[in-house]
Automatic annotation (TrEMBL):
Parent-protein start and end of this portion: 598 to 887 of 887
Start and end residues of each EAL domain: 24-278
Protein name, UniProt field: EAL domain-containing protein
Length: 290
């Protein structure tokens, strides 16, 4: 009995593995063609200055609308794109599009925003990131100070010296740099000191259980003071509730991003949101606390 059960299990797994390999291959082919077929687009999530409640920037987040499957989950394709190297041309497309979009907002008379673009480990390693950024700025006509690149600690720690050298080149061009998902990686404090960055993005896993979880409260406060000691701005990611927002305001956090104010939205919707910003009432707690 045990033997036949084992055999069945074995067959079950191979069939499942076959399907998975097939799906993975199909997905790779899909990603390969998605750029040519214009299936990618960017959503933008507003970033707010906590004290004034104003929108100061927006993070560009890639989306893939597959002709048959509809919207494909990011976790399903970013990893695969990274594995196959396709993330490089995709990343270049994201940079170009985000810069063009930001310039377009400015040309339409919106107050200037900083657009944040996520950078993948591959883009960093393949050593032409600086060139890509230059081209995106030239092509779009966007000034460097309106572009921010988000890098993760793990990306930097793969090769600190090389990463810092690239970041310094970008900084010299006038680009802003931030550490994404801060607190989840392994950067030492001495390494952090040498990064030419302007802000830390406190990972949303530390924001989720605020203001109840004692450990997260301690971590959030510590990151805010660490950031300020190092002359950096601190942005809290994943703010979903008024109570989280109050805690962050009370503890001197500078900026926030999260569903409480807005999910990632289309470029047009963001423009409309900003145009009505002066008239719009801010989330009441942001006003009350500041
Ligand atoms: P990330 O850079 O940390 O981006 C923030 C993610 O948190 C986004 O997920 C956003 O939708 C989500 N988020 C924002 N506010 C909240 C909130 O209040 N609650 C919750 N639960 N989630 C919130 P998204 O768009 O699914 O992106 C996931 C990750 O995929 C990003 O994490 C980033 O690492 C990566 N990614 C997205 N776009 C790009 C891209 O263009 N290039 C690269 N290399 N990576 C990207
Ligand atoms: Mg990010
Ligand atoms: Mg993040
Ligand atoms: Mg993340």
């Amino acid at each position: 009995h045990a033997k036949s059960l084992g055999r069945n299990n074995y067959q079950f797994y191979t069939a499942e593995m076959n399907t998975r390999i097939h799906e993975k291959f199909a997905m790779q082919e899909g990603i390969r063609h998605a750029l040519d077929r214009n299936e990618f687009f960017l959503d933008y999530q507003p970033q707010l200055h906590l004290h004034s409640g104003r929108i100061i920037g927006a993070e560009a987040l890639i989306r893939w609308r597959h002709p048959q499957k509809g919207l494909v989950s990011l976790t399903d394709f970013i990893g695969l794109a990274e594995e196959t190297g396709l993330i490089a041309p995709i990343g270049e497309w994201v940079l170009q599009s985000a810069c063009m979009q930001n310039k377009d907002w400015q040309d339409r008379g919106l107050p200037p925003l900083v657009v944040s673009v996520n950078v993948s480990a591959r883009q960093f390693k393949e050593n032409n990131l600086v060139q890509q950024v230059k081209q995106a700025l030239e092509h779009s006509g966007l000034e460097a100070r309106y572009l921010e690149l988000e890098v993760t600690e793990s990306l930097i720690m793969q090769n600190v010296q090389q990463a810092v050298a690239i970041m310094k080149e970008l900084q010299a061009m006038g680009i802003q740099l931030s550490i994404d998902d801060f607190g989840t990686g392994y950067s030492s404090l001495s390494a952090l000191k040498s990064f030419p960055i302007t802000r830390l993005k406190l990972d949303r896993s530390f924001v989720r259980d605020l203001p109840h979880d004692e450990d997260d409260k301690a971590i959030a406060k510590a990151v805010i003071s660490l950031g300020h000691e190092l002359n950096l701005k601190v942005l809290a990611e994943g703010v979903e509730t008024a109570a989280q927002l109050s805690f962050l305001c009370e503890n001197g956090c500078d900026e926030m991003q999260g569903y409480f104010f807005s999910r990632p939205i289309s470029a047009d919707l963001l423009a409309a949101l900003i145009q009505t910003q002066d008239a719009a009432t801010l989330p009441s707690d942001a006003q009350r606390v500041s």
